[in-house]
Amino acid sequence: MANMQPEKTKMPEQDAKLRASNFEEVALGYTEEMAINEANRCIQCKHKPCIAGCPVEIDIPAFIKLISEGKHIEAYKKIRETNGLPAICGRVCPQEEQCEIVCVRGIKHEPVAIGRLERYCADVAINEGVGPITCKRHCGKKAAVIGSGPAGLTCALDLAKQGVDVTIFEAFHTPGGVLKYGIPEFRLPKALVQKEIDTLTDMGVEIKTNMVMGKILDIDDLKEMGFASIFIGTGAGLPRFMNIPGENFNGVYSANEFLTRINLMKGYLYPSHDTPIVHHKKLAVIGGGNVAMDAARCAKRLGADNVYIVYRRSEAEMPARNEEIEHAKEEGIEFHLLINPTEIHGNEAGDVTGMRLQKMELGEPDDSGRRRPVPIEGSEYDLELDAVVVAIGQSPNPLMRESTPGLKTQSWGGIITDEATGATSIPGVYAGGDAVTGAATVILAMGAGKDAARAMMDYMLNE
Ligand code: FAD
Ligand code: SF4
Question: How far apart are CA 15 and CA 291, in angstroms?
Answer without folding.
Answer: 22
